[in-house]
What does this fold into?
Amino acid sequence: MKVQFSDVSMRFGAMEVLQHITLGAEEGEFLCIVGPSGCGKSTLLNIAGGFLAPGSGSVTIDGEPVTAPDRRRIFVFQERGVFPWLTVEGNIGFGLFDMDEAGREARVAQYIDLVGLKGFEKSYPRELSGGMKQRVEVARALAVNPDVLFLDEPFGALDSITRLQMRSELLRIWRAERKTVLFVTHDIEESVQLADRVVVMSARPGRIRRVVDIDIPHPRDLSSRRYIELRDLIFGEIGLAHQV
Amino acid sequence: MKNRDHHRDTEGTEGSLSVSSVPLWFQRFLMPLITAAIGIIIWSIAVKASGTKIFPTPTAVAKAITTLAEKSLLWHYIADSLTRVFAGYFAAILIGIPLGFLLGWYAPLARAINPLIQMLRPISPLAWMPLAVIWFGVSNAAPIFLIFLASLFPIIVAAMNGVRNVPPMYLQAGRNFGLSTPQLMRRVMIPAVLPRIIVGLRLAFGIAWVVLVAAEMIAVDSGLGYLIIDARNAGKRYDLVVAGMLMIGLIGLLLDTAIRRVEVWISD
It folds into this structure.
């Protein structure tokens, strides 16, 4: 297993946030973690990223216990994580401070190209749309060539059309780069569209209710029977009647 | 902010309001001059109509300024005032910014020291005048100390709040990319805080300039503040008093404009 949670529990004061989470992600796998707001899924991601120590249990990556943040595994926030004082280039090259000038420029250009931001190299984040800022963050993370990406509701602040576009972009990039991805979302549709496996969590204290294999090949047809079946299975698992 | 201003400006030239169809340079420069001219006319009429012997006419004030300028006393006073203000102000920057950073960074330290700062802050710098005279005697140091105090607290508070309000995800991202604490300071913290600090610096300078007159009432015999007090005490020269007031206002306007320029340039 690339990323392995072993019996991870966590509490903040008297509040129990996570209970006995045991979960593995394979190398190159796209794993989505869904659950209601406040179920501890972001906490789980922060533990894996090394930003929080688990109350009990452990997380290992490549068999090594996670104790601190590491640039081999990068955390991607909503687009608010881009640095407003740096240009697109500056943001994407942010983690490349130990490379020489030429190497850095080549790497930045490569990832600007990958996320489709050519022509915006010198732009500042405030001149970009939400979706473009999110691309900058993804490119900034990928540029340091990590082997794991943690994405914490990365598209949560985008409008629904941009969100849909960003999902196919992310899949395209994931296919090109083959990173292990742990993607936290509260959007069930999003998880079924993206993931190899969907981990469904309960409301707080967060436990794993079920892990669902999404056995639909990409590109996924969002009106196919299997898609709707799996989606409704997860809706049901979370306890939502699929009606408005 | 700046973007929005640009937006408004470009829209203003074609806007629907009648005043917006006036060219921008005209609004920015000529209209304030017209306002000033109207003010001077009203002032002039008011002095003549009331028959006051104390309050000078605009002409008398203009003459007073010319006389001061000819004797080179005016430049001498302006230079002295600016030196004192900048000395106190830069001392406040040197101490206030690092202190504000420390207080913003280490919450326990802030809890220990912040109440003291918040208690000292509302005390007018002028209240320190008697102590300043005892400590520094007849020297430049007394007014510089008052200006230092006046600008210190807004700078500390701006830096402290700036550091506290840096979005945690910026720091988390910095750590994630493997930055050491000094690197995190230089590459994330300082650029993230800078816009707020600049606002604090402008605020602090405004206060420092306001305190100048009072600060120069003590212990010194030059400067624009001294000019005002001396003109009144020496011979009730209210033309010189008003001349001094106008000079303080004009220089304050110029310096504020300059700092705003820096602010726009940095937040760009």
About this structure: The interface with chain A takes residues 3, 167, 169-170, 172-173, 175-178, 183, 187-188, 191-192, 194 of chain B (CB under 8 Å). The radius of gyration of chain B is 23 Å. Chain B has eleven helices and no strands.
